[in-house]
Amino acid sequence: MALDPAIKEGAPVGYDDRPIHSEPGSLPPQVQAPLAPFRGRHPDAPEWFLDAIAQEPERTFVTSLGTQIEALSWGELGKPGLLLVHGNSAHADWWSFIAPFLAQDYRVTSMSLAGMGASDWRESYAFQDFAEDAEAVARATGLYDGGALPIYIGHSFGGSQVFFAAAAHPERMRAAVLVDTGFGGPPPNSPEAKRMMEQQVRNIPTGDRAARVYPTEEAALARFRFMPPQVAGNLFIADFIARRSLKRAPLPDGGGEGWTWRFDPAMWNKLDRTVMMGMTAEGPPKVTVPLVHIYGDRSVVKSRISDDRPSPLPRDMLEIAIPDSAHHIMVDQPLALIAALRGLLARWPG
């Protein structure tokens, strides 16, 4: 059975966390459309979350390689720097309820990768370009001003960019934290596994299959879900993320504006992996900066690594498991992730 054209031949498969739509009935309702029951209303949220998102960041844009990159910053200039990087087809606000808890002791910046969030789209994307963007954002937002190199923290696809930057440019960071990060793996072998993979990705927009434009925000929110598919651990967080994943767009029939997702629908096909694949051709690259992996104990991404599928991540790196969490740890267990990061950074890397 042929793989969906959304996946390039030879590209990693089974690793994608973009918020996308798929056909009704393909997944359980709580996975397929977690926000649909609210009909556009905000789910109830606890005080800690409301207080966190009320701490509005400095919202700026940094020019890198001719592209405007969205950057959100919290905390005082001169404090040690933390750079936060989100997952694939996500955006900087995935960290907006985490960063304020780190900003008590750090200057913190969350960036939207090129082609995602409010950052500009590109004709092509590459690991080395994401690394240049990360350094440009870190310098422009003052993460180096405290006299020490910043620490990079990346979730999922963002963690793979952090890992690449750590391997290629160790002089730019003091340490790196990967949050539930994997690098896909070979195509599934069994027909059933292939069928499940195709079901997951068959509605991902591509260059020849544009993203849908929904007539109302409510309609768009009802189509939001996570990739890899999972139940949303906290619906108030899913709602916050989903709303900030949307932008206005012309309706296809020309009858006004609707809502669509804020990512380049062709990004996955436009991603050049040549340098990254060359770096890992002889096995895991040597990473000289201190490296930690925080993962969800129910994560399918972590299970791929445990199943001994090919991965460039070092097998002997320090790992921290977050209990009762799937891949999207900041959605499932945000306070546990905050505690893990604060506890880790208090003593590490020394």
TrEMBL record:
Annotated region (Disordered), positions in chain: 1-32
Pfam families registered for this protein in UniProt: Abhydrolase_1
Domain AB hydrolase-1: 82-206
Entry keywords, A to Z: Hydrolase
InterPro entries documented for this protein: AB_hydrolase_1 (IPR000073), AB_hydrolase_fold (IPR029058), AB_hydrolase_sf (IPR050266)
Biological processes, Gene Ontology terms: acylglycerol catabolic process
Gene Ontology terms, MF aspect: monoacylglycerol lipase activity
GO cellular component, one term: membrane
Superkingdom as given in the UniProt entry: Bacteria
Protein name: Alpha/beta hydrolase
